[in-house]
Amino acid sequence: MSVLDNAARVLRVLTQHGGEVSVTDVVAHLGLPKSSSSRLLKQMLESGLLERDAATLKYRPALLLLEVAHQARGSTPLIRRLEQALEALVADTGHTGYISVLDESRRDVVVLRAFHGSHPLRVVTQPGYRLPAYASSTGRALLARLDGDTARRAHPATFDPHARVLPHAPPDAAALAAQLDDVRARGWAWALDESLAGVGSVSATVNDPQSGEILAFCLSFPASLNQPGFIDALARRLVGDVAAIGRAAGDAFWQTMAPTTADIEQAGAVHH
């Protein structure tokens, strides 16, 4: 078989293994020698089709494949509506905006679009950047769209009680589940000093009923700007846009739930 044929077979194996494969997986499923499997994965890595997790050494789809998959599903103008709304919010507020999705493992968030604002951030993420879903507002907004058992698996302590948990993030799966219930009730998530030190954010999501894809819409800001009422006001702006886009797209969540000012202010009381 040609290299292209084998690369296509690797992509099929990826879909069967939750979006991550090792050299051993490729050997087992393709029947290639270990040296050939390793060389094939390295070629796909160098070509920008795959990237490698430094901790597990497993391979997963790179941003190029995620973009292709997104565009293949993105026959609707949803992404363009989100981009236009986010560009306007970034220009108006000076904060940095992101559009992101969960990766195939449903444990990490991958940035698809970034719109940089005028307020400097300590950490600026670019398209392709990954964040742990349990420890970011974007991740929790996306996880809140999943069933409880699937969402709980995003927390590292679900599989290892001694796993390192980031400061200020939910300490265990039960705490994560409680936060996700809050997100489902009010429609948005927030974070301060979690996966990105010195950075705060608010996020909400839209589900495209035509493609089934869930996109997160986020504004990030320097954590030093936070003061009573700040996150509430920012969330109100963001949710207003997301709810309108969601209703227009036919997202059942936003058609049945319109967050009120009281909802946002009550949620904001916990971070003042």
TrEMBL record:
<dbReference type="InterPro" id="IPR036388">
    <property type="entry name" value="WH-like_DNA-bd_sf"/>
</dbReference>
<dbReference type="GO" id="GO:0003677">
    <property type="term" value="F:DNA binding"/>
</dbReference>
<dbReference type="InterPro" id="IPR005471">
    <property type="entry name" value="Tscrpt_reg_IclR_N"/>
</dbReference>
<keyword id="KW-0804">Transcription</keyword>
<dbReference type="GO" id="GO:0003700">
    <property type="term" value="F:DNA-binding transcription factor activity"/>
</dbReference>
<protein>
    <recommendedName>
        <fullName>IclR family transcriptional regulator</fullName>
    </recommendedName>
</protein>
<dbReference type="Pfam" id="PF09339">
    <property type="entry name" value="HTH_IclR"/>
</dbReference>
<feature type="domain" description="IclR-ED">
    <location>
        <begin position="64"/>
        <end position="251"/>
    </location>
</feature>
<dbReference type="InterPro" id="IPR050707">
    <property type="entry name" value="HTH_MetabolicPath_Reg"/>
</dbReference>
<keyword id="KW-0805">Transcription regulation</keyword>
<dbReference type="InterPro" id="IPR014757">
    <property type="entry name" value="Tscrpt_reg_IclR_C"/>
</dbReference>
<keyword id="KW-0238">DNA-binding</keyword>
<dbReference type="InterPro" id="IPR029016">
    <property type="entry name" value="GAF-like_dom_sf"/>
</dbReference>
<feature type="domain" description="HTH iclR-type">
    <location>
        <begin position="1"/>
        <end position="63"/>
    </location>
</feature>
<dbReference type="GO" id="GO:0045892">
    <property type="term" value="P:negative regulation of DNA-templated transcription"/>
</dbReference>
<dbReference type="InterPro" id="IPR036390">
    <property type="entry name" value="WH_DNA-bd_sf"/>
</dbReference>
<dbReference type="Pfam" id="PF01614">
    <property type="entry name" value="IclR_C"/>
</dbReference>
